[in-house]
From TrEMBL:
Family membership noted in the UniProt record: Belongs to the short-chain dehydrogenases/reductases (SDR) family.
Name of this chain's protein: Sorbitol-6-phosphate 2-dehydrogenase
Gene Ontology molecular function terms on file: oxidoreductase activity
Source species taxonomy: Bacteria, Pseudomonadati, Pseudomonadota, Gammaproteobacteria, Orbales
InterPro entries for the chain: NAD(P)-bd_dom_sf, Sc_DH/Rdtase_CS, SDR_fam
Pfam families for the chain: adh_short (PF00106)
Amino acid sequence: MKQVAVIIGGGQTLGEFLCNGIADAGYHVVVADLNIDNANKVAEAINQKHGVGTAKGFVVDATNEESVMQLAQDVDSVFKRVDLMVYSAGVAKASPITDFTLSDFELSVNVNLTGYFLCAREFAKLMIKYNIKGRIIQINSKSGKVGSKHNSGYSAAKFGGVGLTQSLALDLAEYGITVNSLMLGNLLKSPMFQSLLPQYAKKLGIPESQVEQVYIDKVPLKRGCDYQDVLNLLLFYASDKASYCTGQSINITGGQVMF
């Protein structure tokens, strides 16, 4: 029986890329996203490539407990197992702390941290139910290890994700379920990073056209983080080869962060 992977935030950008890569690796894929049209579009493309029934789109609001619980029930009804849950939902709002609104801070915490907690909890239950030594992987950020200027809400939530990952790993070790976080460097070509260019240009006092190079220059390997870099590490930590690794926060930063 094929393994089943659930990708939260799988309807676009990095999440979409991971869905396709995981399907290529032989998994059935649950594409879960707040935008059901996006989720269905990604699932349809996977099914055209790998066969009908390989993927299915589902709607979920990861910040809403009832929505996450319903997703887990629906996945259980359709696939009867879960081997891998990837939490790839995220949001970033950039502003100096003196202008940072409470609503933006709460949004960052809800999407980047609370949603991770809810999804990990519900899909861990399914792994335990079916006696599966599964994998839970959070897509985190280097901002979860070092503070990020003008990104207090995002960084606070991502730091929280590291602690949550370690705690989940301790809770679930007895079931053989591993939990790890991938700490991404700057995805310079991602829509999220591109949307922040005006704020970053203002923060740095430079034209928007120069922002990417500033961030590249901070990286010892002199390039940004690519989607493929993330998929490479994700597939390893999802595999049996990483069965002795849990509670870890793995850097994918080109050497920018080394602890």
